[in-house]
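Researcher: Structure prediction, please.
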Amino acid sequence: MVFSPNHLSALGRADLRSTGFVIGVAALVLLVSLAPAASALVLVTDLGTLGGFHASALGINNLGQVVGSAQTASDESHAFLWYDGRMIDINVFDSRDSVAFSINDLGQVVGWARTPSDLFHAFLWEHGQVTDLNPETATQSIAYDINVAGQVAGGVFELYWRAVTWSGGEMIPLTPPGISSSAAAINDQGQIVGVFSPGDGFTHGFLWEDGILRDLGTFGGYAVVPRDINNLGQVVGYYVPMSLGSRSFLWDDGTVTDLGIGVEGELGYAAAINDAGEVAGLMTVCEGKVCYTHAGLWEAGDVVDLGTLGGTYSESRDINEFGEIVGLSYDSTNLLVRAALWKVTTGSDVSGPLVVAVEDLVERGAFGEAQGRALLSSLGAVARQVDQDNACGAIRLLDAFIRQVGAFETAGFLASGDALALSDEAHAAIDSLSSSC
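Model: Predicted structure follows.
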């Protein structure tokens, strides 16, 4: 169960292809309702492709930049970087087959690319410059994650797969010679998690820090597979108990929380965790006797269905500190795999910019306090409608807010420019909600 290029079905590769040009994508945006208890809406965006049909998003940083792999009309699969509506083909090594797994806040990207000799090499991409991380001692390599210091976690193949980190131009093995292993993730503290096979017939999870390898064991089962670690040292992944099947887990300094098998109210596969303890993964959603796999978000025991891009399947792969989640989803035809970006939207997210704008007008003396209180009261009602999963109600109240602003302008309480700015912001909020009404 050590990860290698052969495990790409579990890493979002699918059979994707792409080419070497830049395409501006007009993203498809849907709003997916959550269960009432979730008190929010989920905005899901199709990030497009590089000219083909399929794409998978695998990593996101705190700037909202997304990486993954996408297909183009030439039927090749290339690593991509998506930001602000544009998907850029990284085109590593001029390879016909490449995947980007992770991007840090400096815009450094890591992944793997197929060489002309049909081998996989780990790469580091930085603003158009590519570094081949494959050492001379290895035939193949993969880079799965990179932290803010530019330290990389992954694996190299030297007769067997071995977990390594690249740091300061040096490759450092994480496990003893002769032990099959692979590193999956690294946090900004330099802690690394992964898997290794010590020879007992089972797959163990590990936590590596400052040259010391900590065996996380198997939790009494066949395997423990860590997938991510946050800056608090909390680890998520899945384990395989003796009863077979698999269960997701959260490990925190030796304490293990079972997140479930994916049935209603549980997370079946934990893929990523941020510093707030939000866990992105998979869950099962049933309609009668028919059940589907959806991307899910776990937080403090509650699980939210993130929905899909109209199809019956989706999965989340990474989450940033703002709670933005990326992964992949079937489209409404259930034939195309698309890169997806999810944002959980609350009432304060929708009304917040307007609240700040009104408070600023009052503070500057450009607007009376009484009129300011009236508008803020209206915006509070908008937020409550969003939190009650009522986008249509929120839109009606935003329309009323615009009319209220116009009335204050006509009465001389508000300057025309300030009124126009508030109205434009309210229209933007309406646009963000309109697809769900």
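Model: Residues 348-436 form a domain with the de novo design (two linked rop proteins) fold (CATH 1.20.1440).
Researcher: Thanks, that helps.
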